[in-house]
Specification:
The chain has 299 residues and is mainly alpha-helical. The chain has helices at residues 10-34, 37-63, 78-106, 113-138, 142-171, 176-203, 213-220, 256-274, and strands at residues 226-236, 242-250, 278-284. It has eight helices and three strands. α2 (37-63) packs antiparallel against α3, α2 runs antiparallel to α5 and α3 runs parallel beside α5.
Length: 299
């Protein structure tokens, strides 16, 4: 399976970008006029949505470029880099908003609540529409999931902004504005952490957590003529494309044709049982090399 966008159209991403540019400008102006930190926080988050969607759009275009002699894997990791960048920016924004909210919490300022409510509701509508555009593809693509998380988080923060505006309008509780900002910020940090860790795992070429290497060795050992599999390297190129490279020990000196048949059996089993889509196996017979499942010495 490749890391392309599986039905995500560039037009949908562009439309989501336009939606968020409009709401960002409106909320920045409204936040300054109303004096609401929560509304400015929502605007800043919306601006991060614009950045995330724009980066995702160009990452999509780059990732579809074909492999070259200098880039034999192609440009599929562009989307993972975009996901890591977007989620890191999201966490950074969250930390900044916590800082600003704490300062405002101890120094509450008057807020024009009616403007906060109107623009907050606009944010709910705009971001809800953007989520609808990307929802179907968010599950199958990490890059789109990063942008989707931005939008989902912003929809929730807009709801919180509206709730805060209502509280200020009816009860004049001005400290609820920085409180809402803190809640928004904590959500942003929480939402970004798992995506940061997953993106880093892929870029570090760690083995997918859902695949048991010992189980792979056990299943390979059941195939006739194969003595063992060793020096396994298992990694992901993208969010779901899994690669395996290993040495394959044969128990007898089979012909090249027989070895090819056994390798094909291993490849089929790895794809069906473990979802490993790209396999490179080095057949060996009576070779004196390191037989550990994982090569622990320096390469």
């Amino acid at each position: 399976m490749d890391i392309h966008l599986h039905g995500v159209s560039g037009g949908r991403l562009l439309l989501a970008i336009v939606f968020n540019v409009v709401i960002t400008v409106a909320q920045i102006v409204g936040g300054i006029i109303s004096g609401s930190l929560a509304l400015l926080s929502d605007a800043l988050h919306n601006f991060s949505d614009v950045s995330a969607l724009t980066i995702s759009y160009f990452a999509q275009k780059i990732s579809t470029k074909r492999a070259t002699k200098s880039g034999t894997f192609g440009y599929k990791r562009a989307e993972i880099i975009a996901a890591l960048f977007n989620s890191s920016v999201l966490a950074g924004i969250g930390i900044y908003l916590v800082y600003e909210s704490v300062i405002r919490f101890y120094n509450p300022q008057p807020v024009v609540s009616s403007l906060v409510i109107v623009l907050g509701m606009m944010g709910v509508v705009v971001n809800g529409g953007s989520i609808w555009l990307l929802e179907a593809e968010a599950e199958g693509n990490m890059n789109i999931r990063a942008a989707y998380l931005h939008l989902l988080g912003d929809t929730l923060t807009s709801v919180a902004v509206v709730a805060g505006g209502v509280a200020i309008y009816f009860w004049h509780i001005y400290w609820v504005d920085p409180l809402v900002s803190i809640l928004i910020a904590l959500y942003l940090i929480y939402a970004s952490i798992s995506l940061i860790l997953e993106s880093a795992d892929i870029l570090m070429e760690f083995a997918p957590k859902h695949i048991d290497i010992d189980k792979i060795a056990e299943e390979v050992g059941k195939i006739p003529d194969i003595k063992n599999i060793h020096q396994i390297h298992l990694w992901r190129l993208g969010d779901r494309e899994v690669f395996l490279q290993a040495h394959l020990d044969f128990g007898k000196n089979v012909t090249l044709k027989e070895a090819t048949q056994r390798i094909e059996e291993v490849e089929k089993m790895l794809k069906e049982r473990f979802g490993i889509t790209n396999v490179v196996l080095q057949p060996e017979y009576m070779r004196d090399d390191e037989k550990d499942l994982i090569r622990r010495r320096e390469l």
